[in-house]
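Quick illustration, no need to memorize.
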Amino acid sequence: MAQIQGLRVLCFGASITAGLYNSGFQHHPYATRLQDRLQAALPSHRVQVEFDGLSGDHVVGGEYLSRLKPHLNAAAGEGRVLDWLIFQGGGNDLLSGEEPAAIFEAMKKLWQISLQGGTKVMALTVTDTDDQRPQTRESYRKLNEMIKSHQHENFFVADLFSKIPYLGMSQETRKIVWDDGLHFRPAGYDMIGDAVAERLLEVIGAACNS
């Protein structure tokens, strides 16, 4: 009998990771869709996808580090490895006027802590918004370009900003996907789960074939 392999994934971030919609009265985390997609594609694995999304949290000066460390320490204490960290953040920082460079530096520290413990990191770009002001677009562009340009062993990126553009769909579809111009409805969070699953499976497949 073939041995069942484990695959442990932590989706980590703020309100997008929590799946917030309907003004926070309801949640639909993309981790649920990701779990289903990974398990269907990897029947020889025991897939476990967890999520930790704290609405309103900031990468700079927030609780990202204090929240992340217990997850990594718990895995190490049990003699197991957290295989993947799916990291998303920075949107709240940008909305608060934080400079993209400062956000990126804080992100890198969080990624490095995970990588040093043997956890692979997949960073998600900051998701799009209905705010079309030039200053907002430029800050989003700068941070996302920094994320996409970062290179490190066992570090990968899934570009959600390009995958789910606010203006890149019909008004009818937008009503189904987007909730308030910043967060998504369940269909949108499922799209995030699909995008992350496809990118993660791409990376896993490339590693198996190398």
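Strands lie at 5-13, 20-21, 26-27, 45-53, 84-87, 120-124, 155-158.
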